[in-house]
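Dear support,

I submitted the protein below through the web form. The confirmation email said the job was done, but the results page showed an empty box. After a refresh the structure appeared. I'm attaching both so you can tell me whether what I see now is the final result or a partial one.
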Amino acid sequence: MSAGGPTATDPAETDPAETDRAEAEPAGTEPAEREVQWVYQPVEVDLGGGAWALGRISAWWQDAAGRRWCRLRVGRSGQPALWQPFDPARVLLLPVAGL
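What the results page shows now:
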């Protein structure tokens, strides 16, 4: 790209379809492997409008600002797991074993 040209972060050049993905994933690339804690955590995800779906958190990561991220996949959605900020009001952790 030439100096002074639009950048990927220029709001005027951002595709609206990419905005949702950008908000779901951390800036830049995925976190370094050494920073990721791999887990198996069943969850229930609020899809809005009173709809809930089962899902799975497969990893946790904390960014430099201290914000906690989860690698979340919503079951039967047809979508791959994506990194997104953990929101306990929207993602309910379910027990893994023993009640």
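Response: this is the final, complete result; the empty box was a page-load delay. The two ends are 57 Å apart (CA to CA).
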